[in-house]
Amino acid sequence: MDKRIEKSILHISNNFRRELLLDDLAAEVYLSKFHFQKLFKKETGLSPLQYLNKIRLEHAAHFLIMYPKCKQIDVAFECGYSSPSVFTRSFTQFYKTPPSEYQKNNTSKKESKMKTEQFKLPLTYIGKKELIVFPTNLIEENLGKAYEKIIFGINKPATAYGIYIDVPVHKATNECRYYAGIEKNADLFLKADYSFTIDEGYYTFFDIIGDFQITSKALIQYKQNYIDPSQYIVSSLSGFEKLMLPVNVSEFNYFTMLRTIYIKVRRK
Predict the structure, then answer these.
(1) Class for domain 3-106, per CATH?
(2) 177 touches 166 (CB < 8 A)
(3) Which residues pair with 136 in a beta bridge?
């Protein structure tokens, strides 16, 4: 993919909740509006504003699954829509079913019986972090290649960050956008075309080893069993993970490594 369009997609993914104007998106990658639209559609098959709407609706679908009792007005504003009616109309057109029906058909009715009354939600404060990142998806081979670039570039053990723009709850792994990255610092000579900022705030976290089917199940269970009974709610559905990279590429296997998943939360 053209690097300018990849950069624009990352910008849209990070800012879809606010109003994004075509002129601003084009200026972000130093293209005229005409050439930006033409190149964007060539690379994605969609216009920039169609792609923005697609990102918002995919986020809404995730939100509906993760929050079975949420109100449509909350989903609409969480995903950047000006009103519930605009959101409902757009969602129904895209998914061929109203949000309420989509939620009903994709939400499990089974409730966990795990006892959580005495469980204290683990929290940590994370400051703002600037990363350099390599775009990929959730296919094992592609993930490995993205992290190999970092391992080759630093040639020493290091903490890496994985950014989930999408999670494989309602999308196929090859369609989920993911960024493998490492924190910027003065001693880092590794070069990348894209950057990402982890927002400061309070995060809850848990450790996991396994594939994305295990990860998706663990995310839903952790929310239901631990976050929901607490005094906190999820404040962003785009989470990240930390993992320790080895020196040698031959020692790296994403699905057998211990990863710590971080979920941003705020008080109810």
Answers:
(1) mainly alpha
(2) yes
(3) 178
Q: Which pLDDT value is given to residue 111?
A: 44
List the chain domain ranges: 3-106, 124-267
Q: Is-above-0.85 flag for pTM?
A: no
Structure tokens at 19: 């109003």
Please answer whether residues 42 and 85 qualify as being in contact, where contact means their C-beta atoms are separated by less than 8 angstroms.
no
What confidence tens digit (pLDDT) does each residue in 108-151 have?
Answer: 544 444 444 456 899 999 998 999 999 998 888 999 999 999 99
Number of Cβ within a 10 Å radius of residue 4: 19
SS (H, E, C) the chain: CCHHHHHHHHHHHHHCCCCCCHHHHHHHCCCCHHHHHHHHHHHHCCCHHHHHHHHHHHHHHHHHHHCCCCCHHHHHHHCCCCCHHHHHHHHHHHHCCCHHHHHHHHCCCCCCCCCCCCCCCCCEEECCEEEEEEEECCCHHHHHHHHHHHHHHHCCCEEEEEEECCCCCCCCHHHCCEEEEEECCCCCCCCCCEEEEECCEEEEEEEECCCHHHHHHHHHHHHHHHHCCCCEEECCCCCEEEEEECCCHHHCCHHHCCEEEEEEEEEC
CA distances from 225 to 30, 56, 112, 229, 240 (A): 46, 27, 7, 7, 20
CATH 3.20.80.10 at 124-267, yes or no: yes
pLDDT higher than 90, residue 209: yes
* Whole-number Å distance between alpha carbons of 208 and 215: 7
